[in-house]
Specification:
The structure is a single chain. This protein has 3 helices and no strands. It has 74 residues and is mainly alpha-helical. The longest helix has 22 residues, at 2-23.
């Protein structure tokens, strides 16, 4: 379960990183709201996953999924 939460957290990281482009400096309401929700959800899910996974492993996977996904989609 923790691994699935960690992958979802990484995908949400991709979502907020890509979403920043569409916020127009946080001047557009809906893209800004979606980006903020994705940011919060990503960090919360990371924290929940770290309850059972080692911190170094969880963080490395989270950053890796986010970086690869953002580079691929950006």
């Amino acid at each position: 379960m923790a691994w699935m939460l960690l992958i979802v957290a990484g995908l949400l990281e991709v979502g907020w990183a890509i979403g920043l482009k569409y916020t127009d400096g946080f001047t557009r309401l809906w893209p800004s709201l979606g980006t903020a929700i994705a940011m919060i959800a990503s960090v919360v899910l990371l924290g929940v996953a770290m309850r059972t996974l080692p911190v170094g492993t969880a963080y490395a996977i989270w950053v890796g999924v986010g970086a690869v996904g953002t580079a691929a989609l950006g």
